[in-house]
Design brief:
- With 201 residues, the chain is mainly beta.
- Helices cover 4% and strands 46% of the residues.
- It contains one helix and 13 strands, in the order E-E-E-E-E-E-E-E-E-E-E-H-E-E.
- A hairpin with a 2-residue loop joins strand 6 and strand 7.
- The radius of gyration is 18 Å and the shape is globular.
- The two termini are 22 Å apart.
């Protein structure tokens, strides 16, 4: 079988010069994003989610590994105070629902006034919890994506010595920098794991 996905990368820039940083993104060698402007400048409060749809990839939980390449299109370096760079601190995806939309499942609080769509099992306690299904229409909302996994491999001349060892030891996504002086950007291998509908009906 094959599955369609919506992917997103969470990123921000070091702003320099008279324009924002722009990136190209390739998935398995095919350009999926062209010259997207990165306007955010802070990893926590002012970031961008660059999103695209890719069709006909491997199913979730089937050892599917995608290869992303991200390149800074408009590099600028004048000095240490005027240096345009890009940072990535998250990769996410949503697998497409059989009805052709993208959905997210969320647990409702016990005092919620919303009507649940079904009752499922909490993924930590296995206790029954009310579940609401939302159709995702705004793909800039980072919480809509599965984001729990780190890359399986990162290759770039921007990556400092020991970066990968630190990421592995932390078992968490480690910020990837794109300085802009490398000719091929950064290459990231990423494994698609669980379905977005992790709490099943």
């Amino acid at each position: 079988m094959a599955t369609n996905y919506r992917f997103g990368i969470r990123c921000w820039q070091d702003q320099a010069g008279d324009e924002d940083a722009k990136i190209n993104v390739y998935l398995n060698g095919t350009k999926v994003v062209s010259e997207a402007a990165i306007t955010g400048t802070d990893k926590d409060t002012d970031y961008n989610v660059i999103s695209w749809e890719s069709l006909g990839l491997g199913d979730t939980s089937s050892d599917t590994i995608i290869t992303l390449k991200v390149e800074l299109v408009n590099n600028l370096y004048v000095d240490a105070n005027t240096d345009r760079n890009i940072y990535i601190n998250g990769i996410g995806y949503i697998d497409q629902d059989p009805d052709g939309t993208y959905k997210s499942w969320r647990e409702l609080a016990s005092d919620s006034s919303e009507t649940p769509d079904f009752t499922g099992a909490d993924w930590e306690t296995n206790e029954p919890v009310p579940i609401k299904i939302d159709t995702v229409t705004d793909f800039t909302v980072w919480d809509s994506y599965i984001t729990a996994y780190m890359p399986t491999e990162v290759t770039s001349s921007s990556i400092a010595s020991g970066w990968w060892d630190t990421a592995i030891a932390a078992d968490a996504f480690h910020t990837i920098v794109i300085w802009g002086d490398e000719t091929d950007g950064v290459t990231i291998k990423y494994k698609i794991m669980e379905t977005r509908q992790s709490i099943q009906r």
